[in-house]
Amino acid sequence: MHRLLTGIGLALLVSTAAPASPAREKSCYLDGFETPIRCVTISVPLDYDAPSAGSIEITAAVAPATTARPAPDPLFVFAGGPGQAATSLGPWLDTAFRPARRERDVVLFDIRGTGLSQAIDCTMTTSVTQDPVEILRKDAQACAAKAGRIAAFLSSREIVEDIERMRKALGAEKINLWGGSFGTRLSQHYARSYGKHVRAVVMDAASPVGNSIFLTAPRYGEEALQLLLKDCSAAPACAKAFPALATDIATLLSQLEAAPLTFTATDPRTGIAGPARLDRYTLAGTVRAAMYDGLSRSVIPFAIHQSARGNQAPLMALGSGSGDWIAESVSFGSMLGVLCGEDIELARRAAPAARSFGFMTDSYFRTFATACEVWPHRALPERMLQTFKSDIPAFAISGARDPVTPPAAAEEALAMFGRRVHLVIPQGFHTNSPSRCVSELIGAFLQDPAAGATDHACAAKFTRPRFLLSPTL
């Protein structure tokens, strides 16, 4: 296994690292946001254990406050993935962060290896004919070779230090943090290390430090699937159209466990007919990914019903949609840099039974564990793999139907902070900040972290899409 172990004197080396070089600024544009904004770039050590042995450039896009006198504490934004660039959230400046911008600048921080911070441009194969575990391993091996030395220094440990240097470069004594999904982990890691510089934390779809997604995802995924089955049974049209939905899923999983299904199908990306393959991993991954969003979730009963009766086209379309989004929106190298040193490390310590549950079994862990065997990485310092305590006020946003970071995950994350506000959206899914309801609450919390964001009545107005019953209904 390619794994670099962390030295005992890590914390001391970090604290004595050379300061970042002077910031460089230029005007730039982001997709989905018409106004030119300020892009700030700094050079930081590639390896904080050896500050003089190479550097990497980190860039953040600073969207100005809409007031003439902005507050001195900007809002730093960390996207999810892991591996998504915050600068890809340009459209969110007019939705999720619009109320926050009434008072303060918003800093879209691209973590190293993504977006404007020396993105690692690696291919993620979206094949319908090959074993997904072997595909991911080969892609990881090719990406590691392409990335070179940088591949070993893409973890949360380095990212936290990059954030701190950007804070200094922007001249902000205190900052606020917004994280989405895996970005909430960065908020927690930074709050642990540099809490004296944090005024408030907002976590949308919180993923607590000290835990591994490869341990929680199978359980949360199964809970989300059972909730989907319950929702379908409670909807007369869905229950009538798909009366054997639970049986269909169980039968498909059992059949695919015995042997993958091969068939001829039209590729939903190209429209060209050719050989295709469906195995248990692919089915479980497709269902799990489709439950992230209300619209794709509404197609699952129809897709499963059709698959059980020999028509794989709807299921293939669901899988290609989520697969293409990941391939286009997430830096594969950055994803592995975070997962291999943090979540895989924690999952390996657990008993095998803890990594396997429900319809996902241990497929999620096994797939990425194989990729991490060929990805150069080092485990995070032990203190970063543990929970912590802080007096910083925190606001968490959860969707009750989120299959990966449900309200229970947010409660674990909130337990590490001071004043705790938890917005649970009964009909919400994964990340909900762009809605007007949630964005206004974020703005209210940032305006007054000690007492704001208490009226959650608007969350009851969320609705989920009705289930798709056929290609036309």
Summarize the structure in short.
The chain is an alpha/beta fold and 473 residues long.
Could you tell me how far the N terminus lies from the C terminus, measured between alpha carbons in angstroms?
A: 50 Å
Q: Which percent range fits the helix content?
A: 25-40%
The Rg value, from CA coordinates, equals: 22 Å
Strands of the widest sheet, in order across it, are 1-2-3-5-4-6-7-10-11
Strand tally: 11
Strand pairing plus helix content: what structural class? alpha/beta
Low-confidence stretches: 1-20
State mean pLDDT (0 to 100 scale): 92
Counted by DSSP, the helix tally is 16
Order of helices and strands: HEEEEEHHEHEHHHEEHHHHHHHEHEH
Largest sheet: 9 strands, mixed
Share in β-strands: 15-25%
Global shape: globular
Question: What distinguishing features does this structure have?
Answer:
alpha/beta, 16% strand, 473 residues
Provide an overview of this structure:
It contains 16 helices and eleven strands. It has helices spanning 10-15, 132-147, 156-170, 182-194, 213-234, 236-241, 245-258, 280-290, 294-297, 300-308, 313-329, 332-341, 343-349, 363-372, 407-414, 436-447; strands spanning 24-30, 33-45, 55-63, 75-78, 106-109, 175-180, 198-204, 261-266, 273-278, 394-399, 420-425. It has a nine-stranded mixed β-sheet with strand order 1-2-3-5-4-6-7-10-11, with helices on both faces. The protein has a two-stranded antiparallel ribbon with strand order 8-9. The protein is globular and about 60 Å long.
Which helices and strands, and how do they pair?
Layout: H1 10-15, E1 24-30, E2 33-45, E3 55-63, E4 75-78, E5 106-109, H2 132-147, H3 156-170, E6 175-180, H4 182-194, E7 198-204, H5 213-234, H6 236-241, H7 245-258, E8 261-266, E9 273-278, H8 280-290, H9 294-297, H10 300-308, H11 313-329, H12 332-341, H13 343-349, H14 363-372, E10 394-399, H15 407-414, E11 420-425, H16 436-447
Parallel strand pairs: 4-5, 4-6, 6-7, 7-10, 10-11
Antiparallel strand pairs: 1-2, 2-3, 3-5, 8-9
